[in-house]
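Case study 2.
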Amino acid sequence: MATLTSTEFKFPGQTGEYHGKVRDVYTINDDILVMVATDRISAFDVVLPEGIPYKGQVLNQIATFFLDATKDIVPNWKLDTPDPMVTVGYKAEAFPIEMIIRGYLSGSAWRAYAAGERELCGVKLPEGMVENQAFPEPIITPTTKAAEGHDENISRDEIISRGLVSEADYAQMEEYTRALFKRGSDMAAEKGLLLVDTKYEFGKRDGKVILIDEIHTPDSSRYFYADGYQELLAAGKPQRQLSKEFVRQWLISEGFTGQAGQKVPEMTPEFIQSVTERYIELFEHVTGKPFVKAEETDLEQRIANNVLDCLNTLSR
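Prediction:
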């Protein structure tokens, strides 16, 4: 199966490009962004050497699904989805923080809690909690957006005092974050899932705070299956997850955690196929829709043609 692991597009009016771990973003006339969700996959801040067929389509279409389902809550950057792997939208001045919201004590929050910390990003945590337990109320634990290296936890007060975001804009982002998480949690519950934690990114355009990037995909969110959650919690056992956590666990089992000098284990065709199947399963479970595989021959040409048609329409 074909994969798209790198792109080098030159669109009319192109004024910039950025290649992230997973997404390639092209700027048109300093006003429009073309975001290509590639088939690259990353773990432990490392881009793995093999692409995952249909992963980009899964991520892009999940993001599209949730951007459309939440546009009544907060205006977002999306204008069109001209290709299964592409979203086109407005450029905004991005805020230099990510709004992470947690409904459950999991992941890095649990690791900090288990190490004895009882305050996270200025939020006081209750005593006596166990891993994967629900918080009394979802908590917001922002991080900085590092140009290089790892993002760092930061509190609301630090964000405002350092001038990273104005108090008014932060209050708006916080309100949007809680409303988006409530909508995402309700939609997940309808599918028998728990939205554990996620992150949102915001920017400013024409003086207004808008939602940018993607939301509620397995790259930015963690889901548990609701069925069996309480029993596993009571027994102190790991929860059944619907995320890319299984890729990280496979790497760990093969002795790779992203440390210097470590070699990425061989990604066999069988393993790659299994990752594709898990991503498709995730798409269908989260959206409640069947996944329709897009035409995969000459992916770059297909994307180029579809984006050109979209840009021509927008310029009229």
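The chain has a mean pLDDT of 94.
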